[in-house]
Amino acid sequence: MNYATQKDYENTKDDIVESHGLKILVDPKAVFFIVGTVMNYEETELASEFTFVNPNAKGECGCGESFNV
Fold first, then answer.
1. Most CB atoms closer than 10 Å: which of 26, 38, 42, 65?
2. The pTM is what?
3. Which H helix or E strand runs over 40?
């Protein structure tokens, strides 16, 4: 996941998904792998981070940033 600038939105071939006031760029090749994924922003005493729950994932790495289907 990366942050995007306005220029990124204007010059993209990615799909733009809008929800709850956020715009997210998604590579069209990745759409079928992330269908149904829930993205949350969580704040704890140790971290502030985006978390993802992907019902298609068969396994994840230890840090949760990568998954396989």
1. 26
2. 0.59
3. strand 38-43
42-54 burial: b if 16+ Cβ within 10 Å, else e: eeeeeeeeeeeeb
The Cα 41–Cα 27 span in angstroms is: 21
Q: Residue 64 pLDDT > 60, yes or no?
A: no
Backbone φ/ψ region at 64: left (φ over 0), alpha (ψ -120 to 50), beta: left
Say which amino acid occupies 10: E
Residues 6 or more apart whose Cβ sits within 8 Å of residue 16: 9, 23, 24, 25, 26
Question: Side-chain half-sphere of 30: how many Cα atoms within 13 Å?
Answer: 16
Contact in structure between 37 and 55 (CB atoms under 8 Å): yes
Compute the distance between CA of residue 45 and CA of residue 33 in angstroms, rounded to an integer: 32
